[in-house]
């Protein structure tokens, strides 16, 4: 049987159809660079719906204010300007009041973990002014902005974003697209990043849900557990003032990790102003104080605080605030 040739318009449409069927399928359009690969990873590892993950990420917004904020951190300031931000009379007084209001719980958790309660209070005081300022940015916006649009630290923040998307509901304060926090995506009174929630957050009140914004047991225990898991030494020193002599050897350190026994620093010309064990593993921090250089012996517990925030200025502020709070609590008890 002879088949009549198709009319030209029909042949043309048929050819187009064949070409279309043989062409590669175009990639699904995404809102953010790297979103497709991220969604594939999370879906593969958790079984979550790619459509739901894409819808969640499509709702996130790149925030220029977040990129601006991370480019000017407070830790870039010299100590003489950084210290007054956190060591104010008001913050100390608020810390004393906060400690006294929650003393039983703080001291119970302090005994359980071996972390002095004033350091738990100081962390919450420095991070969020005792829970009053936990951050105004949407956590999802922050982590999308820094993980997908900020090359200098994209690896770290993409990991945080991935962890947020993978996190079980009982470790979050609510739906992911409703969470708020810092410009860096930290959450709760202690400002935990998603991987810190995963690794160190504690359900201290045993209600089956880790709540870092509304459960004081969970908040306090999570901060203490973070310290312990990073090597906190119960009763150990944090920092102590050092006095250089005229021939003191200049010492540069790349981080706060203890590197020498204290007696070695003494041999290099730095004298302690209080009794300390000569064998205590230590390091030395030189800070730009209001009246010139300040020299500080720092120890393992100081290093642990820098695992919370890597800046030695941050660790020094936490230490000095903790001491001021403890002194204030003690004075209040004597006055009673």
From TrEMBL:
Residues 1-29 form the signal peptide. GO terms for biological process: peptidoglycan catabolic process. Keywords: Signal. The active site is at residue 127. Coiled coil: none annotated. InterPro entries: Lysozyme-like_dom_sf, Lytic_transglycosylase_MltB, MltB-like, SLT_2. Residues 37-323 form the Transglycosylase SLT domain. GO terms for molecular function: peptidoglycan lytic transglycosylase activity. PANTHER family: MEMBRANE-BOUND LYTIC MUREIN TRANSGLYCOSYLASE B (PTHR30163:SF9). This is Lytic murein transglycosylase B. It comes from Rhodanobacter denitrificans. The lineage of its organism: Bacteria, Pseudomonadati, Pseudomonadota, Gammaproteobacteria, Lysobacterales.
């Amino acid at each position: 049987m002879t088949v009549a040739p198709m009319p030209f318009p029909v042949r043309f449409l048929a050819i187009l159809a064949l070409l279309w069927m043989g062409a590669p399928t175009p990639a699904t359009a995404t809102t953010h660079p790297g979103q497709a690969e991220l969604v594939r990873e999370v879906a593969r590892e958790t079984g979550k719906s790619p459509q739901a993950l894409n819808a969640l990420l499509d709702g996130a917004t790149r925030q220029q204010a977040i990129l601006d904020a991370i480019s000017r951190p407070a830790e870039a300031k010299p100590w003489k300007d950084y210290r007054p931000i956190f060591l104010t009379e008001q913050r100390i007084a608020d810390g004393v009041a906060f400690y006294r209001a929650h003393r039983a719980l703080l001291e119970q958790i302090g005994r359980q973990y071996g972390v002095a309660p004033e350091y738990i209070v100081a962390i919450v005081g420095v991070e969020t002014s005792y829970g009053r300022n936990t951050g105004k940015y949407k956590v999802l916006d922050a982590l999308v902005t820094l993980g997908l649009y900020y090359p200098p630290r994209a690896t770290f923040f993409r990991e945080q974003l991935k962890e947020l998307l993978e996190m079980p509901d009982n470790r979050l304060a609510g739906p992911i697209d409703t969470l708020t926090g810092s410009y860096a995506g930290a959450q709760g009174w202690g400002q935990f990043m998603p991987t810190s929630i995963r690794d160190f957050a504690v359900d201290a009140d045993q209600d089956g849900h880790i709540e870092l914004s509304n459960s004081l047991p969970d908040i306090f225990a999570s901060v203490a557990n973070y310290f312990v898991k990073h090597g906190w030494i119960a009763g150990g020193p944090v920092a102590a003032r050092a006095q250089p002599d005229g021939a003191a050897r200049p010492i540069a350190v790349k981080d706060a990790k203890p590197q020498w026994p204290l007696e070695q620093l003494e041999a290099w010309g730095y004298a302690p102003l209080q009794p300390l064990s000569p064998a205590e593993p230590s390091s030395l921090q030189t800070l730009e104080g209001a009246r010139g250089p300040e020299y500080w012996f720092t120890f393992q517990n100081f290093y642990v605080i820098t695992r919370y925030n890597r800046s030695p200025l941050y660790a020094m502020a936490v230490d000095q605030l903790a001491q001021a709070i403890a002194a204030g609590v003690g004075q209040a008890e004597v006055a009673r």
